[in-house]
Amino acid sequence: MHAKSAALTDPTLLVYLLNESGEDRMKGTIRVKDKCPNCGESFEHVKKLGYVCRNCKTTPKKFYLDLNWQGKRIRLFCDKSGLALDSYQRALNLQATIQHEIDTFTFDSSKYVKAELSKYWASTLLDQFLEAKLKIVAPSYKNDYKRFIRIHKAFFSTTDVREIRKIDIINYMQSLEGNNLSGKTVKNIIDNFKTFLTWLRTDLEVLSSIPSFPAIEVQPYAFTWLGSEDQIKVLSLINDGDRDIIAFLMLHGCRPSEARALKVKDIDINRQVIIISSTFSGDVLRNRRKGRGAKPSIIPIHPEMKDFFIERCNNHPEAFVFLNPKTGNHYASRTFSRIWERARAKGNLSEKLRLYDATRHSVGSQLANQNVSPFIISKILGHSSIKMTERYMHENIDGLKSGFDKITLKDKVKEITTVTKVSPNGNH
């Protein structure tokens, strides 16, 4: 039996301890509210050991710290983690912690008072964060936000956000990696949590600073792409009524969500240009392009689709350019996905080949292989940064080969051979 427990159950020693225990310098007094469940008598305090009923030798299961500080009486029923003081040892630990914080002028009672503490729990504030963000994020991101918040809450729960440090972020990241999540997914979750902490600092002013986050290395997505001949084969597998929008994507490199949102008013036949200014997020039309602060993008009409647009521009300006032949309305997100999946299955194409790869990524890669300037590619694809366009540069193997044609050793072979045959001291 533990020495402390033995002391509280040995009758002779118990009487001595009850009579001899004195005051100490620790701030606050550990108290109990309950009485002995057997005899109804109050528990008696044995300093440093606990509370006990002199008659029944029973001990309480709930404690609190009674503290007088700066003229106020404060009763603390839990520690910083929100854990109830369900043992005398936990209460002693809390008393020692508070004594240290008072001595070092860092004591903040709101970090211990449960009614106040719950305001700073990660789970409480994450719910507020989600409510605020769901009002402004793109509809297609809402499910991700909800999933990320559930993951954050499962790990941090009743952690006081003011106590979160870099080591906590590292532990969180390692727990995510232990769940066999991809590097990209881990990065997205951690980035979302950083956004949460930033929101706490800038919007709620709960935090004065944000802990530094460890760098997360993510392997770049090795997307596949199609050459023009393969695109033609894939296009032949698309039903006639749906072929126009897929051809448009293969020739112009727009995002599928932007093609679905394209309206007649966005086509300028006189200038032969298309204005990309809207997008679908899921099935919600947004009058803005994807990306924070993204501006409208203007691209030329591909010559092969000029006649198509001339015909379509006879419609009402607010009419969608591409219509689902089955419904006569714009393409829904799921319908659009099914069109691609059917064509991919017909052609026995890899499941990893996405519509995005067969269209937008293929346009970027084909242009790179034709040695088109990254600046021009960036403008065509509507990239906000040239850095995004550089993803396509590694595909330009033909361009690299043509670069090697400009260097040669043919005229220098004899000279090199002569030099290497004779050492500096004249020896072979």
From TrEMBL:
Keywords, in A-Z order: DNA integration, DNA recombination, DNA-binding
Tyr recombinase domain segment(s): 218-405
Signal sequence interval, chain numbering: none
Coiled coil: none
Domain Core-binding (CB): 120-201
Keyword field contains 4Fe-4S: no
InterPro entries the record matches: CB, DNA_brk_join_enz, Integrase-like_cat_sf, Integrase_catalytic, Integrase_recombinase_N, Tyrosine_recombinase_XerCD
Pfam family, one: Phage_integrase
Entry's family note: Belongs to the 'phage' integrase family.
Protein name: Tyrosine recombinase XerC
Taxonomic source organism: Candidatus Magnetominusculus xianensis
